[in-house]
Amino acid sequence: MQCSTGNSQSCGNSNSEENIKDDEVRYPDGSVKLRNPNIELMDQDILYHLALGSGSHDLVEMFGDVKFVCMGGTPKRMENFAHFMMKEIGHKLPTGTQLMDICQYSYRYSMYKVGPILSVSHGMGGPSIGILLHEIIKLMYHAKCKDPIFFRIGTCGGIGLDGGTVVISEDAVDGMLNRYYQVPILGRIVKRPTRFDKKLIKELKALADPEDPYDTVTGTTMCADDFYEGQGRLDGAFCDYTETEKMQFLESLSANGVRNIEMEATVFSALTNQAGIKAADICVTLLDRLKGDQVMAPKEVLNEWQVRPQILVGRYIKRYLQMKGRISLDGHGSIAVKSPRRFKLVQQESQTFD
Ligand SMILES: O=P(O)(O)O[C@@H]1C[C@H](O)[C@@H](CO)O1
Ligand SMILES: O=c1cc[nH]c(=O)[nH]1
Fold first, then answer.
1. What GO terms describe the biological role, i.e. biological process, of this protein (predicted)?
2. Which one, 9, 79, 99, 158, has the greatest CB density within 10 A?
């Protein structure tokens, strides 16, 4: 297997774009521009799977202040993340109100809003996150959100990494190690390059605390279309390969820089890249796939591990808001500003938080 370069030639399709121009995806004030001329000609746009619409809801009023869109597979994780962020940024709900699932009547996805943070579940696999991304990107457009940043906070299988390790994706490849997301459109295969924001990756990595009782690493993420055979497991309902073949495959992934396997990275990186939206995928490993297939860690351990990507993203968001003067520097909740000097260095190094 070879990693393709992911440029328009190797993708072999005119829809793969190397450089997306700013004015194609942003209005001068930074608000999201859609690369679909049909939408602005429509009387209203029904965001069917979110149970929201541009005709039925005042989307600017409801979502205009959103800066961070955080997504992960399960409704419970995203509800917990919303509560966690509420404490972190000291967000107070109006008296007598509580956090509500904004999309409860979609019966598809769950969505919570905490100030400038949206916390949304995406279900399992490419098609599910793909539909969500279309509608969330359109939501950003209708709400006139400015330069939003997207995070996926997920789980994965590690390649040569212990359970509980946090992996920040540098690249996303499919099960053939192609650096593109391939989708049939009007009877043609369209290949969209997968690309994460390098600066964002660097900033996140720098926010890993040496005192964290787990490792935070970066590397290539393989995105599979299946949990079992698609990830070379021996324990699916079917298996037509040997353990030796499985191990050869996993070793070849490792040799190609793949550090984890999950099921959304290609779609997530390709569609955010297509929309000109900065994005990062941060997952915790639930096991080392070089040592087994079954997820055996006890529920309490898995629950603790799942929080680790949230802590990293929480640090990023909190520090962003602190730098923007939107929350106080002495901070709230459990993510203390342990090392302001280090944060300053991160900023100087990457000239971020613009
Ligand atoms: O974000 P989550 O934990 O849902 O992502 C991974 C990839 C699949 O959707 C799922 C498989 O168990 O977990
Ligand atoms: O092995 C794993 C664990 C979580 N999610 C995956 O897709 N694979």
1. nucleotide catabolic process; uridine catabolic process
2. 158
Residue type, 214: Y
| Single-letter amino acid code for the residue at 173 | V
The answer to whether 126 is annotated as binding is no
Q: Ligand 2: does its nearest atom lie under 6 Å from the Cβ of 286?
A: yes
Tokens of residue 47, six digits = 């965001």
Q: What is the DSSP string of 67-117?
A: -EEEEES-HHHHHHHHHHHHHHHT--PPTT-----TTGGGSS--EEEETTE
Ligand 1: list residues with CB < 6 Å: 72-74, 124-125, 154-155, 227, 262-264
pLDDT tens, position by position, 228-243: 999 999 999 999 999 9
Average pLDDT over residues 247-260: 98
Q: Are strands 216-223 and 166-173 parallel, antiparallel or unpaired?
A: parallel
Looking at this protein, which amino acid is placed at residue 150? F
| DSSP strands (E only) in the chain | 46-47, 52-53, 68-72, 111-114, 117-121, 149-158, 166-173, 180-185, 188-193, 216-223, 258-262, 278-288
Q: Residues 108, 113, 117, 120: what is their CA dihedral angle, to the nearest 10 degrees?
A: -10
How far, in Å, from the CA of 345 to the mean position of ligand 1? 34
**Under DSSP, is residue 300 helix (H, G, I), strand (E, B) or coil?**
helix
- β-pair type (46-47, 52-53): antiparallel
For residue range 209-220, what is the model confidence (pLDDT) as tens digits?
999 999 999 999
Q: What is the pTM of this model?
A: 0.90
Q: What are phi and psi of 113, to 5 degrees?
A: -125, 125
Fold entry, domain 39-351: Rossmann fold (3.40.50)
The CB of 69 under 6 Å from ligand 2? The reply is no
- Distance CA(342)–CA(207), nearest Å, equals 8
The one-letter code for the residue type at 314 is G
| Measured distance between the N- and C-terminal CA atoms of the chain, rounded to whole angstroms | 39
